[in-house]
UniProtKB/TrEMBL annotation, chains A, B:
Native source organism of the sequence: Phenylobacterium hankyongense
Lineage of the species this protein comes from: Bacteria, Pseudomonadati, Pseudomonadota, Alphaproteobacteria, Caulobacterales
GO molecular function terms listed in the Swiss-Prot or TrEMBL record: DNA-binding transcription factor activity; transcription cis-regulatory region binding
The HTH lacI-type domain, residue ranges: 17-73
Entry superkingdom: Bacteria
Matches recorded under PROSITE patterns: HTH_LACI_2
UniProt-recorded name of the protein: LacI family transcriptional regulator
A Pfam family per the record: LacI
InterPro entries the record matches: HTH_LacI, LacI/GalR-like_sensor, Lambda_DNA-bd_dom_sf, Peripla_BP_I
Record's keyword terms, sorted: DNA-binding, Transcription, Transcription regulation
Keyword Lipid metabolism on entry: no
DNA sequence: CTGAAAGCGCTTACAG
DNA sequence: CTGAAAGCGCTTACAG
């Protein structure tokens, strides 16, 4: 009677067959079922038995319980992915690349949006670790990040993507920001610009810092000496933060003819400020972004920007991580992808 | 000697403590550790013992093995989310809403990009089920979807989001497409348009079909009788498919003054065709989109569109699903969210 | 209030 | 080539 009740209330669980069920149906022992269903051990069995087991499993619609297998093998074939903000359009292509590679190897991604708050990130990572992820991809790291310390101490295979940490203790996949900024500055210089400013990102992020340094280095190489008033740093990589910093930049350096921006979202913030002031782009000011995120070819004017191969970033990160998980490689590998300049309509010769 | 080797090669695993370790350190039995660490059963213990266990766990940095717990309790506190395309900007906000609600309840999302291919979707779902997800959110469903049949048969708690299936056998969270199209048509009619066409989506998706019906119904209510040449359907919800269908529409119905489009991505495709033909928007043609996806306020001209609360869609879907998982509710609930019209610069009085 | 035992569903040395 | 047993790390009736 009791059994019947259970049968009624959770039918789903009830209809889930186990190795035992398959074993009974095929007339073999459970261990034989396990061996028959695993391609790597199947050859140890007689073909006849293997076929019988596979048939029995198919007839029942048997789906192995991956949790039980993971508990036993100590591999979950699950990877945790920690993002600061999934609505930032650079992350979906990264995620797509990650997933494509992981899926090939039968891995699944547990994706967590952790924001920028450190405590929240810590909590999220602890939950992922509790679920026994085999490795972690972090897109959240700051240049000095206590969370990386913790992960290293815990011994979790770890790859950081898009951003790297200052000490490079951990494998990373990033874009060559120095080259990116050089392309941007060269482009404006080539158009005739000599008063070029930089709308930068947060300096606690490798992208913010690297792009500022890239800008300064490229500017100096052209004999330009950007005064400190030609530089303004945003508090985050968002359109809103871009607006605020762009406002300050235009206040302090009204005679700029070109601005190299550390990120497309910031560039959109600059667009907002230009529109609010009735200034035209590229008429009054040429603007170069960074990322070539989706749809910046559709904004007005279409944004000249530095293209980063985000999908490839995700693919490489997944490959690095899987090698780490399998013990085929060690940490501390930095993959640096070459960006390109995409010239659109936001840049022109200076006024 | 052998032990030492193991100790060296997988340090991570080695340093993971278990209930046994905590039990030993606190001088209690493993079952007591379990009870002390679970807030729901803690009260059964003397405060002194509970405190001792909690302290011991903290000292060791003990993180419970969620897989083992799930195997035992038959709840994984994991939800599978199946998307057709994460790079479609409508999905990140949905995901954000889902995750926010799930995280509150200590659930984690396994996100899988399954594309539009049915076999691939089936594979992806099987993998998620093998990992014992407690429920599934599908953003992939077509109006008649064999995958839904399978899930129902398997007895998995299930919610569909953004799109619904024709039979409404499954709980869904969608936007009111009829109302959305009515807002769009009313807006153009109010501006003076009488030759209004529809650039529609695939009719095997509820959104494509519902928006076409909404368009026709609203048009008829104004006494308009859109000829079949005023309607053109795209093969998918992408900018590329939008371009192709927009090309056909402008060929067949060059005298239209306004077009209501089933989706912003399609509207961008229409923009592309207008640009290629040297036609201006809204000068030659007024355009209304659908979704208000991120950054359509930045395109040229800023797109008038029907705003869908995608984040809320995700939140509601998570809530529905959790109630289903807990047996607090039954399936077959349709949540319909009210959209709004956002008027920007792509619509004006007819030429 | 706490302990001892059983068992979730697998896999894998160990036999034979 | 196949079986029987042990065990992954938890939780939860069942005792007392």
């Amino acid at each position: 009677m009791k059994e019947l009740e259970i049968g009624c209330t959770n039918k789903a669980v009830n209809e889930r067959y186990t190795v035992q069920d398959v074993a009974k149906r095929a007339g073999v022992h459970a261990s034989t079922v396990s061996r028959a269903l695993n391609p790597a051990t199947r050859h140890r069995l007689s073909e006849e038995v293997a076929a019988r087991v596979i048939a029995a499993a198919a007839e029942l619609g048997y789906v192995p319980n991956g949790l039980a297998a993971s508990l036993r093998t100590r591999r979950s074939e699950t990877i945790g992915v920690v993002l600061p903000d999934i609505t930032n359009p650079v992350f979906p292509p990264i995620l797509q690349g990650l997933e494509a590679v992981l899926a090939e190897e039968r891995y699944v991604a547990m994706v967590a949006n952790a924001g920028s708050d450190n405590d929240r990130q810590r909590l999220v990572i602890e939950r992922l670790l509790a679920r026994q992820v085999d490795g972690l991809v972090l897109a959240t790291v700051t240049r000095h990040d206590a969370i990386v310390d913790q992960c290293l101490k815990a011994g979790v295979p770890l790859v950081v993507v898009n951003r790297s940490e200052a000490d490079h203790r951990v494998s990373s996949v990033v874009s060559d920001d120095l080259r990116g900024m050089r392309l941007a500055v060269d482009h404006l210089y080539g158009l005739g610009h000599r008063r070029i400013g930089h709308l930068g990102g947060p300096q606690n992020l490798s992208t913010g810092k690297g792009r500022l340094e890239g800008f300064l280095s490229a500017a100096r190489d052209h004999g330009l000496d950007p005064a400190s008033s030609d530089l303004e740093l945003a508090s985050g990589f968002s359109r809103e933060a871009g607006r605020e910093a762009a406002f300050r930049l235009l206040e302090h350096a009204p005679d700029l003819t070109g601005v190299v921006v550390a990120n497309d979202l910031l560039a959109l913030g600059l667009y907002d400020v230009l529109a609010a002031r009735g200034l035209s782009c590229p008429g009054h000011l040429s603007v170069v972004g960074h990322n070539d995120m989706p749809f910046v070819d559709m904004v007005s004017p279409p944004l000249t920007t530095v293209r980063i191969r985000h999908r490839e970033m995700g693919e490489q990160a997944a490959q690095l991580l899987l090698r780490l998980v399998r013990g085929e490689a060690q940490g501390g590998v930095d993959v640096v992808l070459k960006p390109d300049l995409v010239v659109r309509a936001s840049t022109a010769a200076p006024r």
